[in-house]
Amino acid sequence: MSELLHRIKIFVYRFADTVPHYLLLKPDQGLEAMWGPLQGALGFGDKLETAIRRRVQEDIGLAAPERLLDLEMPGRWTIGDEEIVEWTFGVRTMHDLHPDRVADVWAAHRWARFDDAYQSLGLELDRAAVMRLHTKVLAA
Length: 140
Description:
Blueprint: E1 3-16, E2 19-26, E3 38-41, H1 48-60, E4 67-70, E5 75-79, E6 82-92, H2 99-105, E7 108-113, H3 114-120, H4 124-139
Parallel strand pairs: 1-6
Antiparallel strand pairs: 1-2, 1-3, 2-7, 4-6, 5-6
Helix pairs in contact: 3-4
């Protein structure tokens, strides 16, 4: 019997000089650390929006994300006896990160324009997600 795990990936963005910039985070895992979005487990009984807001507040210190965009690209795969379902969202903010909170959780962070963000992301699924988010942001 496999265990079902739900995870969320959150691509935080903001506008600077009328151009969207995307938050890239690097976990503190030595040479294997890759740039990516905010991510974490979805707890039993958690609602997606509540879990996203909590993760944004606890991990990067943003109190009130402005806009939540479902990127409508859930992922699902099996690793051993675990089945993982991943939900991907974009979150717009007008605020800056809480520097102490970010430093406690992440080895590095930066805001990047789309072309830099796309090239820096370590996983193909993350590149596809930031491309979809960028398309939705520009279309709005």
